[in-house]
Amino acid sequence: MVLIDLLYNTNYIRCVWLILLVSGISTAQESRILEGKVTSKEKDVTGIAIQNITSRSATITDADGNFFIMVRHNDTLMFSAVQYKRKMLVVSEELFSTSFVNIPMEAFVNELKEVVVKPYNLSGNLNRDLSGLQLEKDVSAEALKLPNARVRIISQSENKLHDADHGKFFYFYGLGMAFNVNKILNRLSGRTKKLKKRVLLDKEYEKVKEIEESFSDSVLINVLKIPKDRFHDFIYYCQMEAKFESVSENKDQLLLWQFLVLKSKAYREENNLD
């Protein structure tokens, strides 16, 4: 009887510990979107980077300093911009439960020390000093003059299109003519045209994927106010703009963001999303 009671008590204690452990894990994994606004006396609060160092996610502020970012308890947020001092913020229990947070930023003033250039054989003239620098040679495929160093690696769809639109020629010496049967058959069947469309779709998909990876989902949905299931359609809408290609290829995230914000307003109006 004592042994049965002991086993019963042991199993009861294990169940209690298991319940506490599961509840602790679920609490630790709870997350929510933190909404806030960055403020400053300088009033330049556009494009300030907000990084969740713990979860390795990030976002940026809009033109008014507003932002959205996913957080958990005890996450560390870092606010940074060239013109402001870096600011760290730990997501406490009080901060986690608040509905809105204001983040004041302090201007960064970079005080440069006096620089003496003469002892290092520098004249102070940048063009003259740069021309005299002895730089190490760049070690790359192009610098080493390796074969096919500048050849771009094509995609699978591009490779299929190349195969469909090329091939061996069959010569008819009696007629003095040559035919590329593979090329003719693929064009007559419509396969070449279909593969060309697939190449274009692949390029559009890569562009959408690149933009999605540049900005978090919370920014795209909450700031641009574009539903996630219509984001691909929104990017296609942006691609109709003549300057989209130059903006997206510029690698300037702030310029791209400003373009997306501007086009999102027009897209929402035309599709009655507001």
Largest sheet: 4 strands, antiparallel
In what range is the share of β-strand residues?
15-25%
H/E topology pattern: HEEEEEEHEHHEEHHHHHH
Q: Examine the coordinates and then state which fold CATH places here, giving the name of the CATH topology of the domain at 31-133.
A: Immunoglobulin-like
Instruction: Return Rg in Å.
Output: 30 Å
Structural class: alpha+beta
State the share of residues found in helices, binned by percent.
40-55%
Question: How far do the termini sit from each other?
Answer: 71 Å
For this structure, what is the CATH homologous superfamily of the domain at 31-133?
Carboxypeptidase-like, regulatory domain
Globular, elongated, flat, extended or rod-shaped: what is the shape? Answer: extended
Any low-confidence stretches, pLDDT <50, length ≥5?
16-28
The CATH architecture of the domain at 31-133 would be Sandwich
Protein name: CarboxypepD_reg-like domain-containing protein
Organism: Flagellimonas pacifica
Topology:
Elements: H1 2-28, E1 31-39, E2 49-52, E3 57-60, E4 66-72, E5 76-81, E6 84-90, H2 93-97, E7 101-104, H3 126-131, H4 156-164, E8 170-172, E9 177-179, H5 181-189, H6 191-214, H7 217-222, H8 231-239, H9 244-249, H10 253-270
Parallel strand pairs: 1-7
Antiparallel strand pairs: 1-4, 2-3, 2-5, 5-6, 8-9
Helix pairs in contact: 4-6, 6-8
Task: Tell me briefly what this model is.
It is built from ten helices and nine strands. It is of the alpha+beta class and 274 residues long. The longest helix is centred in the first third of the chain and has 27 residues.
